[in-house]
Amino acid sequence: MPNRTSRQLAAVAATALLGASSIAVGSSQPAEAAPPGSVRFATFNASLNRATQGGLVADLSTPDNAQARTIAEIVQRNRPDVVLLQEFDHDAAGRGVDLFAENYLGRSQDGADPIEYPYSFSAPVNTGVPSGLDLNGDGTVGGPDDAWGFGVFPGQYGMVVYSRHPIAVEDVRTFQLFRWADMPGALLPDDPSTPEPADFFDAEELEQVRLSSKSHWDVPIRIGQRQVHLLASHPTPPVFDGPEDRNGRRNSDEIRFWSDYVSGPSASRYVYDDEGVRGGLRPGSMFVVAGDQNSDPEDGDSLPGSISQLLDNPKVGSGQVPTSEGAVEATELQGGPNLLHTAPPAQDTADFAEPPGNIRVDYVLPSRQLRTVDAGVFWPTSDDPLSRLTGTFPFPSSDHRLVWVDVRVPGAR
What we know:
One of its GO terms (molecular function) is endonuclease activity. Pfam families: Exo_endo_phos (PF03372). This is Endonuclease/Exonuclease/phosphatase family protein. InterPro entries: Endo/exonu/phosph_ase_sf, Endo/exonuclease/phosphatase. Keywords: Endonuclease, Exonuclease, Hydrolase, Nuclease, Signal. By secondary structure, this protein is α+β, with helices and mostly antiparallel strands. The chain has a single domain, classed as Endonuclease/exonuclease/phosphatase (Deoxyribonuclease I, Chain A). It has nine helices and eleven strands. It has a six-stranded mixed beta sheet with strand order 3-4-2-1-11-10, with helices on one face. A five-stranded mixed beta sheet has the order 5-6-7-8-9, covered by helices on one side. The protein is globular, with a radius of gyration of 20 Å.
């Protein structure tokens, strides 16, 4: 998201805001780990990206980086069993993943209990990987906007999965190389100055341009004798482009990819992974879609209906929507475009500048076989001592909030 501008601080009545929403607001702060018999899945855009390659590894090499300590404490306070972190710079050796686990998660942060994750997964992403093509159409080749995904070096804005349950690494599927044009009915960007449709990319570019701005990962987690597929992604923000709306269209199709993937062979037969294996998720498989999808169901800049492709998919459960009291308070205090939003403020997961204001972009969506026990967004109110972890701009942690869902895995022991 762009740098934060000055914000209008307008107070509005809490009763008016709550009256406009029929949703119950739960606690943003789990008092303890997931209850026995359930598993807590979480997603968190942790903003642990750095401006230069190797910068994150350098920051994590000692245990005193203030932002990393705050991010680690948020994870420790929420105690997810499986957590997907986004905007975590990828390095080929995996040093950043190990250092964050050892120097931060594995050490008490301000009195919070350390948390150990014996298993982790990370892989290359498209961000910062040069395409050698003029993908933004500005007449020059090179730079972050002509990479396969926006970034100034390979691996910037990457992802990592940490898990307390074994990861079936041999069964992981990645979709970093999947071509956008290979998706049937893809929303390929159009040059509005010509009569031809979907012609923003030329023929050479269409042969190569990738769908995923980072990557899409199917990471199977072994929970007892059962397996739950964590479907991880971080679609591009639907902004920072021109009238061709290439980022808005890409965002929508990146979201659609998972909807097709879980919907059965008729919808997913076009899919192929980075090893060339074709097809989507096996029917009947349990899954959790997780990540910063950069799309709100009703507000913000994404194409209408983008995230609804997942929210309305019959394979996705209709359990409790994660909420927080802190998000409602932020709308009350910040005012501005937040007062014009349609969606309930309690569901917001990101504290963005205006426009678009605070919206729901981060999701943990279990499949219908997984019964939701509890859910929340870690967004403490200002009178909560833990509000120091989220704060206000410039944030001590991230402009996103950790989102968690507790589920029961049938047949797991």
